[in-house]
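Two records follow; treat each independently.
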Amino acid sequence: MKRIFISLIAITLIALTGCSSGGGPSNSYDGAVAETTMAMASDEMYAIDTGVGTDLPDAAESEKMIIRNADISIQTLNLDETYSKLTAKLYELGGSIHTENTEKNDFSAYANAVFNLPPQNLDAFLAYAEECGKVTHKSISSEDITSQYIDTEIRLENKRKNLEKMYEYLDEAYNSEDVLNIQREIDQITADIESYQGQLNYWSRSVAESKVNIEIRQLQDPDEIEIEDVEFSTLSAENMGKIMSNGIKKCADVILTLLQWLIIIIVTLLPLIGVAAVVIAIVFLRRKLLDKKHPERVEARKLAKERINKARNYQPNSTNGADSGYKKPPQ
C-alpha cells in the first residue's frame, strides 16, 4: 500500500506539472525528469505486480537461495592426526581451506580454521567431524534470501532501464544546466547499480559455498601422565665446598666491580677536582698576601679566637656570689 501511495503521488505531481506548463513550450530536461519519474513509478508498480516485498514466488518459477554455514568445536588427544583427517575429508568433498591457525605449547595445542565447501556436502563433513573427536559445540545456520535476491534483481533491472533513458535525455539536452543535472542523475543511478550488483554477487558466492568455522583442541591423556617421585637429600662435602667457593668468587667479583667503578668515577671527576684545587689555592694565597699587608688582620683573628675560647670555657662561680644572676639548670 505504501508503494502504491507513493506511485500515485508521483503521477499526480507529473500531471500538475504538465498542466502548469501547458501555456508554453516545455523544456527538454523537464520532460526528461517527468518521463524518468513515470518510469520509476511504473517500476514500483511492476515490483508490486510481481510480488516482490510481499509474497515469495512459486518454487517452479524461481530456485530457493539459502545460505548455510556452521560452527563446530572438537576435543581430541592428537591434534595433528585429527586435523589431517578433516582436511583430507574436506578435499574429498570438493572444499578448500580459507584460513588456518595452529598453536602448541607444553600443556595444550589447538587449531582454528575456516573451511569452504559446497553446501550439499556440509552435513556429510559435519558427520565425519563428529567421528574424529569429542564435539563440544556445533551449530548450523540457514538463511533464506530468495525474496531479497529477487527484489534486488528487479531493482537492478529497473535502474538499468532508467540509466538508458537518462542517456537518451542527455543526447537531447540543449544547455549546460540540463547536461549537469542529467549527468548528476546518471552518476547516482550508476552508483545504485554498482551497489545492487555487488550485493547480488556476494549473495551468489555465499549461496554457492558454505563456511565451517572449526576449532580443534588437544587434551593431555590422563593415562599418560606420570607422577615423578620426590626425593630429598643432603649436600655432600664436595658440593658444599663448590657452593662456598662460588659464593666467595661472587663476593670478590662484587668488590672488584665496586673498585673499578670507584676508579672510573674519580677519573671522570678529575677535571672538577682540579678546578676546585685551583680555586682553593687562589683563596689561600690571597689570604696570605692580605695578612702580610695588613698585620692587624692577624691580630684581630687571634683576639676573636681567644674570646671564643673564653666563652666556651666559661664556668660561673656561684659560691662567692660573684654572679648572683646565674641559676643552676634543673637536673
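The next record belongs to a different protein.
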Amino acid sequence: MIQSTAMPRLGGAARREAKRTSRAAVQPARPWLHTRASGLALILALLVLWEASARLGWVQSQSWPPFSAVLAAAWRGFTDGELSLPLLSSLGRMLAGYAIGCSLGVAVGLLLGGNRWIRYLVLPVLEVIRPIPIPAIVPPLILFLGIDDALKIFVVALASFVPALINTMAGVLGVDDVLLQTARTFRTGWTRTMLRVVLPATLPAIASGLRVAIGLALVVTIVAEMIAGSAGLGYYIVQMQYALRPDAMYAAVLCLALTGYTLNRLFLLGEARLIPWMGRG
C-alpha cells in the first residue's frame, strides 16, 4: 500500500508569506531605472553638481552659494526660528484656505453633477472665472480685504475650490447608471442617493481633485505672501532677496520643496487607507 504524506496545514500568516514568496520568485526583478532609487540618485547628482559648480567657480555669481551653505542656512533658520516660524505661518493660512475651498468645491460639485438645471446655470460663470490667474486677482482683492490673513485665505480657498469642484462634478457624471437606476427602483430620495450611492462612487475623482488642490494651495499661498505679505515664507523669500542673503533665500525655497513633497506623500498615505482600490504609490 502506498501511503500518502499529508502536508501540514499552514496558518493564515504563513500562507500569505508563502504566496508573496512564490510571486517574488515568479516575477522578474525590475530594472534599476524603473525604481524610485533612480529618482533619488538623480536628485543627489544634481545637488552634487550644484555644490561643485559653486565651489569650483563654474558659476561666477554672488547669488549662487554652495549647497552646503544653503543647508547651513536652513539649519540656522530652523534652530533660531527665523525660517520655521514663517513656514508654520504659511502652513496655517494654506490649510485654512484649503479646507474651506475643498469643502465648498466638493459640495458644489455634487450639486452641479446631480442637478442638470443648476449645472447649465452655473457652468458658464465657472468657465469665465476659471482661466483667470490667481496672481492677477490679488491686487484688486487688496482693496477689499487688505493685506492680512483674510486675503491669503480667500485666494487659497478660491484656488482649491476649482479643481475640487471640477473633479467632483466629473466623478458624479461618471457614476454607473445601474447604481442610480437601482436607487430609483428602491425609491431612494435625492439626498440619500447622493450621500449613500453617488458620494462613495465619486471618492476616487474627489481624491484626485483634492490632490491637485493641495499643490495649488501651497503655491498660491507663497505667491500671495510675495505680492501682499507681511509674514510667511513667501514674504521671507522676498526679504532675503532684498537683504542679499541668497543662502537663506535658497534655504527657504528648499524648505518649500520639501514641504510640498511631504504634503503630497501624506495625502497619498491617507488616500491609500481611505480609498485602497485606487492603487496609487
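Discussion point: The two ends are 55 Å apart (CA to CA). How would you locate this feature using only the C-alpha cell line?
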